[in-house]
Amino acid sequence: DEYDRSFLKLSPDIAVITALDADHLDIYGDEKSMQDAFIAFGNKVKPQGLLVSKLGLQRIKEIPLKNKLTYSLQNETANVFAKNIRLEQGGYSFEVQVKGKTLSPVQLKIGGMHNVENCLVAITVATELQISDEKITEAIAAFKGVKRRFEYILPPQPHVKGGFVQAVLVDDYAHHPEELKALLQSVKSLFSGRRVTIIFQPHLFSRTRDFADGFASALSLADRVLLLPVYPAREIPIPGVSSHLIFEKIDRSEKLELDKEALLKWMKEHAKHLDREFGEVMVMAGAGDIDALVEPVKQILENAF
């Protein structure tokens, strides 16, 4: 975990660096110091080991390790990339170009283009470990996802119920602007034409202060934003810092600041007016205790049909 620098205690045979976006500035102070820690982590890979990194991370060149591979969603200048990505029932089917060979078909039955990227990383590592193509594709097809990582609480249904399209409910741990952006871009892509509501609980006062603009920009990708109070976790309140810092910057006319009780009350009322012709998508996101609201929200949506 990069949060407390504990990843610097490792000396891996294979390491992966997926991003160098600024985060945990309460620990590191600034973006450069955080990135310095990642470079130190990369330099702890064993001399005959492998470092896999996302294409475009400029500072990776500071790691002199001989064996390095890059991956990208679809940029063919990377060592590993996906081709012919197709949407299938809330998931994806695609081909993977990895170390000069093509792996096909790969079927990932969870949502999120960022999860396709994560899949590329897993395939790269598995290939390095000389796991067979057949075992790799079988394992990915059987993978049901990780709790709170684009987790379908109410999955998309292939058929309408009583002539109505049921609501989709997604729960995700996203608590950084780039994570939220990837989450909402994936939802909008998977469910084009459906109205998307994001219910977000900011995590940490310091993160809210440092990334208010980024959070607002990401949340503005949704059609409707419901913003909960900041979850403090390990912090004491910072004067002048609240969810309202984000709220006032969100570029959406449909936005509300609600506490948990008010959110459930709003959901019960909104459930009476769900778009049953095209279906709605509700996304719950945050690293605090918002997960305690997932089951009540699910029950409200289920009872609407």
Walkthrough of the structure:
There is one protein chain. With 305 residues, the protein is an alpha/beta fold. The strands form 2 sheets. It has a 6-stranded mixed beta sheet with strand order 1-2-3-4-5-6. Strands 7-8-12-9-10-11 form a 6-stranded mixed beta sheet, with helices on both faces. It starts with 13 loop residues before the first strand and ends with a helix.
What attributes does this structure have?
305 residues, alpha/beta, 6-stranded mixed beta sheet, 10 helices, globular
Write a compact overview of the structure shown:
With 305 residues, the chain is an alpha/beta fold. The chain is built from ten helices and twelve strands.
Q: Which class of secondary structure composition applies to the elements?
A: alpha/beta
Shape: globular
Can you give the helix content as a percent range?
A: 25-40%
Strand order of the main beta sheet, please? 1-2-3-4-5-6
Q: How is the topology of this model organized?
A:
Elements: E1 14-17, H1 25-28, H2 31-42, E2 50-54, E3 68-72, E4 80-88, E5 91-98, E6 101-108, H3 113-128, H4 133-142, E7 151-154, E8 168-172, H5 177-190, E9 195-200, H6 205-210, H7 212-219, E10 224-227, H8 244-247, E11 255-257, H9 260-270, E12 280-285, H10 294-303
Parallel strand pairs: 1-2, 2-3, 3-4, 8-12, 9-10, 9-12, 10-11
Antiparallel strand pairs: 4-5, 5-6, 7-8
